[in-house]
Hints:
By secondary structure, the protein is mostly helical. The protein has 7 helices and no strands. It has 2 domains: 1-85, Serine Threonine Protein Phosphatase 5, Tetratricopeptide repeat, CATH 1.25.40; 89-163. The longest helix has 38 residues, at 125-162. It is elongated, with a radius of gyration of 21 Å. The N and C termini lie far apart (83 Å).
Amino acid sequence: MPEKEEEEMGYYEKRNQGADYVTKGIQENKGKKEENFRKAIKYLDDAISINPYDHLSHFNKGVAFYNLGEYKEAEDCFSRSEALNESVAGRYYEGLNKMELGKLEEAKEILERSLELTSEKHVLRKDIEEKYSEVEKRLEEEKESKKELDEELEELEEESEEI
Length: 163
């Protein structure tokens, strides 16, 4: 079936075309990835302008931004998607994105919610558990690092008082 001109495409066609480009972006080699993710964002923007309440369009747009390393934009998309319809995949990607932004406490809470939403046999369960463990480890490392810095600062303050 020949492709329609973009102007002739309806909402579902644009949404599906955007989702297809997200999939292609994930599967393609590095050179084509960015091009496919940019196309996905364009189609998904069109779909969202027609129906701003479609959580899947917001989610897929977030995945495209996430894969482009544009985490702030992805954060906005995932938040909109999850506000419209909470899902395991949505929460998982939102948690991954928060980790990339360095918002580890928020990532932990979101991944924890993902675990609550999944059964033991869910396809993402193991991935969510691994990321949850990773974020806990990073938080513990941050806590230890802060403790060491506080101790060093305290020693410096004591030394400066002696002078």
